[in-house]
Hints:
Structural class of chain B: alpha/beta
Strand content of chain A: 15-25%
Helix content of chain A: 25-40%
Strand order of the largest sheet of chain B: 2-1-5-6-10
Strand order of the largest sheet of chain A: 3-2-6-7-8-9-1-10
Helix content of chain B: 25-40%
Radius of gyration of chain A: 22 Å
Distance between the termini of chain B: 75 Å
Largest sheet of chain B: 5 strands, mixed
Number of helices of chain B: 11
Strand content of chain B: 5-15%
Structural class of chain A: alpha+beta
Number of strands of chain A: 12
Largest interface: A-B, 50 and 51 residues
Oligomer: heterodimer
Number of domains of chain B: 1
Shape of chain A: flat
Radius of gyration of chain B: 21 Å
Shape of chain B: globular
Distance between the termini of chain A: 61 Å
Largest sheet of chain A: 8 strands, mixed
Order of helices and strands of chain B: HEEEEEHEHEEEHHEHHHHHH
Amino acid sequence: MDEKIFAKKDIGKLLEELVPEYKFYAPTKIKGNIAFKEITDVKEIELDYLNSKVPPKDVLFPQKEIIFEYKYEGKDVIIEERKDLEDKILIFGVRPCDAYSFKLLEDFFASGDFQDDIFLKKRENATIIGLGCNTPRQSCFCTSVGGHPFQKESTDVYLSDLGDIFLVEAISDKGKSLVKKLTWLSDAKKADVDKAKDLAKQAEESITTKFNFDLVTKVLDENFEHPVWQEISESCIGCSSCTFLCPTCTCFDVIDENDEYNNRGRRIRIWDTCQSCLYTLETSGHNPRPAKIQRCRNRIMHKFSYYPSNYDCLGCVGCGRCITACPVNNELRLIIDKILEIEEKSGEKVSA
Amino acid sequence: MVKSMGLETENKEIENNLREIARGLLKEKKVDVIIGYMEGTLPLLSQPIIIDSEEDVEKLIWNNLCYVNLAKYLVPRVPKFVNPEKGNLTVGVISKGCVGRGLIHLASENKINLDEIKIIGIPCNGVVNRQRIEMEIGEKEILEVSVFGDNIIVKGKDFEREFPYDEYMNDLCKTCKIRKPPLVSKSLDLCVGECEEYSNIVDDFSDISEFEALTPEEKWNQITEELSVCTRCYACREACPMCYCNLCFVDQNKPVWFGKTTDLPDVFVYHLIRAMHMAGRCVACGACSLVCPMGIDLNKINRKLEKIVKERFDFTSGLDPDVLPPMVDFKLEDAQEFALEED
């Protein structure tokens, strides 16, 4: 049998063996919230979690990223390129929805006329260790966006949580060579593999939020100016919780920070958000998205209309973070319901 | 269809009363729209709702999860209560004490016109500190929450826990002295429902004495730890009824005034400058903390500010639209020990 197992209590062994080679990222608790951070001490790793509050996206695409630094020497400006991009990264315990988000991020950063060297270099050097999702939440809907709580896509090694042990499957070539190196893993028994299958089935059945997103995309494309957007944006307060906790949002802003007292500076990029009043604000002062109605619409259109037409897939992984994060409960499920209602109502009219 | 989560509480009577008032106001065309709360779709949440028809009155609720300050929906940055033909609409606002204070304070800063508003006053017994409960439950999914008597009962798939309400309500609610919207002498017509007249508010601020006794270093550590998880989503600012600037100082980009990263100095500068702007203006609704997706608690900063303003200017925000707030006003006898003394 190809599958391997290791006891959860041996996580320290895994860390010890991989830390010299990789920057080892794993879920940890920071002020009560689960987030992926670089781990050096096994005690920091949190294995009992539903999903992280902040998605692991920020390991490869952090909220603030230095593009390069520079210094002045006389009249010359010396550019200092990043030296850490060759570092090997390992992200442990990524839920299938978040693992799939890396594929969507790649779609964005690698397609079109521009290749994002920083992201793509990091992605190339990253090994993703996925972890099946035994307990999806009420707000989860990965099965509606082509995912599954036990989906292995975009992972290199895939783990299933069987209680005291992890079942280990090598998925990609990268994953296969990694698993080969971990000689202390024991072989899985058939019972272990069967248990993982059962858990996958149970997890899938526990997902109750389901949508027909093909229909959503169609309705969106036909109703850009529909009054429903007024209704949808009415209670939105215009914060960015939904976009900053989203595993697939990719918008960023580039800023030069000049430290003139020290004759140096840096060019950084920081996450931008379509919910901000500065988003798409032009130098002239004109903003094509001047109010909440256009900003709320942009977020939904981007995920469920622009992504399908640009990359032939939905720009959402169904993690439900925007649903739980919205402070005024103006959540995605309600928005999708309202959008689908347009179709239902127009259907009624036709039949009448 | 997403189901809404009912919160069973003992506030049914208040809820019935407010629906009655709301229905009457809409029927008699005393208001064009009403802003209130409806049930949330997840436990520990509620949804602000704007209604304009009598049928929708049944959607209005009142419980201990109505944490958003609805005054926010009326500030000038959100100019939506206008009908192209009729002009400005009259808006009824379901108001607990701090919503009423928010409206009155906004009027004192000339930001809203109270003639276009009806305060539908309700007595509030505080809102649940939802972040604290979420953090204590930890990595388990909360499926049901109810508030009964002295307890908040939280249920999940294989757990049930009780939290004493007095302890687990929002910290600012614990010390709140203005639970019903203040009665405003100028316009008796303004307040419907339960409002109350307040004279001088007495507050000993003993709740923050522990924090005040810390050394500067300890305070620094406590506040920086609290702010370290900030993602700068600005939910605190967007939920705050007093944050209505057209362009926030932190968004200024011609030139850029402050760093925009999530590095600690930048985060710190944002929160502390925002706090300075709240002096004598904060109405202690706690919405900034209750909406934070990362669970940052800004209450201590707000309480300390409230104390400073109370001691220096004997001022409590949001009680009287005709009294100028200290930061808008100038008096010759104002203390100014920051200025250099003349020889």
